[in-house]
Specification:
2 copies of one chain form a homodimer.
Chain A (H helix, E strand, L loop, with lengths): L1 E8 L3 E8 L2 E9 L6 H16 L6 E9 L2 E2 L3 E5 L4 E5 L10 E5 H12 L8 E5 L7 E4 L2 E3 L29 H5 L1 H7 L5 H6 L3 H25 L3 E5 L7 H13 L8 E4 L5 H11 L3
Parallel strand pairs in A: 1-4, 4-8, 9-12, 12-13
Antiparallel strand pairs in A: 1-2, 2-3, 5-6, 6-7, 9-10, 10-11
Helix pairs in contact in A: 2-8, 6-7
Protein name (chains A, B): ROK family protein
Pfam families (chains A, B): ROK
Organism (chains A, B): Nonomuraea roseola
């Protein structure tokens, strides 16, 4: 049976697998050796692809899709601050003799949401995975929009509270400084946002409320600018489910004066969105 | 010579004219009788169109373009809070036997900027006319984007300072509460933003600085979300020229950590953008 090799390259983990028509036939997770430098990450991806593409009973990989962060075209990883990449050609990521297609990690995951997830049948969607950071993918008129230079969707660094909390990017008051899973955890001295959610003390409640309010402010702005029909929250924080989207819907409506808010849903694909998105890239090879 | 009838219907004035290929052959301005109710405005537009379409030496109007505020399709003014319209068909706006096309006022002006103005040859542009209010038109991949329901571009009401100055919309901290020409004037007890600019006292300087900073915050957010190559400032406030865009460019760059700002230019078409945009609508009849 024909299938594709898909790898979603995150800052901490790489998720790889074999996929056919949106069905994950095999999946595996490996650490991303980010601290070992740009070449080490490329070598690790290449080794991962080689093993995923190795002969398996009844499965025949026909192409490779790699979802990576930064500025990316189908043929080049143009720039990645996270990995220190500049103009890495797609062929550098594999030793196997299969066609390889690169794509932007968040936009690829957004494409999977459009194809298989909560955003199916909605042409105008904002997809917002929340994890270590916060990124966004914009589906406009049914197509993913990358902006003039491929940098669209950087919603994690919009200034929701000008001159507010410091952010790792160097600015203050960014959405991510309040609402990324890592910021929520760090502000409460925890190792995860789930740990914060399970606490009932005043500090944890205030940090969570400020995270939801920051998201409501950023989504109010995105709604006014872009008028999406649907917002899909993905990434690790989406696992909070109703504890997140319930108050978020209320606060978003409260921040909008003269228009109804868009629907806000949790991703149905969860962390698989990235892998399925990488597989969609492979199908364009 | 063939030409089109164009009317740009603003909240205070209607600008009408005869246009051919982006050249204004005749232009006239009339007050909009907004306080007299929904039907009075429609009747005034109809009378204006009839007179514009009347026989003139050597000019033969072939169609009518009307740029109006609110939610609008080519055949209907679906909703306008400013005029109290609901589902007004295009034919209701004229008695003449010419085809009529309706369009959104700000997006039509944005189309003119794309066709004739500063945005020519840039596919990804944010056009921001600043006057009594602040609106926006988004050109994405060379096409104007209206959002899921036609409400995109409402940048005047994005919350730049959450819980800041009260806005007429009922929210607080909206961009328009700081940076619309009318807000700038009202905060200084003046009748126009030009009067504020000509003052050198501390209050006037602070109000102007806060207006520019609010614009920088909103544009930083729009830049991070949409990655436009160019921002075009139009409307009455654009007449401030370098006094506006000079400090705006500096403050926008200061609000962006990891990416360069888009170019920021003043509209070359100025207040004619709306009329030329209405004429472009007519050419689609």
């Amino acid at each position: 049976m024909e299938c594709v090799v898909a790898v979603d390259v995150g800052g901490t983990f790489m998720k790889g697998g074999l996929v056919r028509d949106g069905a994950i036939l095999y999946a595996e997770r490996r650490p991303t050796p980010r601290t070992e430098g740009p070449a080490a990450v490329i070598a690790a991806i290449s080794a991962f692809v080689t093993e995923l593409a190795a002969p398996r009973e009844g499965l025949r990989p026909t192409s490779v899709g790699l979802a990576v962060p930064g500025l990316v075209t189908p043929t080049h990883a143009v720039f990645s601050a996270a990995f220190g990449w500049r103009d890495v050609p797609a062929a550098a990521f594999t030793d196997v003799s299969l066609p390889v297609v690169l794509g932007h990690d968040v936009r690829s995951a957004g494409a999977a949401e459009l194809a298989y997830g909560a955003a199916r049948a909605e042409p105008d969607v904002l997809y917002l995975p929340i994890g270590t950071g916060i990124a966004g993918a914009l589906a406009l008129d049914g197509a993913l929009y990358g902006g003039a230079a491929g940098w669209a969707g950087q919603i994690g660094h919009v200034p929701v509270h000008p001159d507010g909390l410091p952010c790792a990017c160097g600015q203050r008051g960014c959405l991510a400084a309040y609402a990324s899973a890592s910021s929520i955890a760090a502000r409460c001295g925890e190792s995860s946002a789930e740990a914060v959610l399970s606490r009932t003390d005043e500090v944890a409640r205030r940090v969570w409320d400020e995270a939801v309010e920051a998201l409501a402010l950023a989504l109010a702005t995105a709604t006014l600018l872009l008028d999406p029909a649907l917002v899909v929250i993905g990434g690790g924080l989406a696992q909070a489910g109703e504890a997140l989207v319930g108050p978020l819907r209320t606060r978003l409506a409260a921040r909008l004066a003269f228009r109804r808010p868009p629907r806000v849903e949790v991703s149905a694909l969860g962390p698989q969105a990235g892998l399925l998105g990488a597989a969609l890239l492979a199908t364009t090879a």
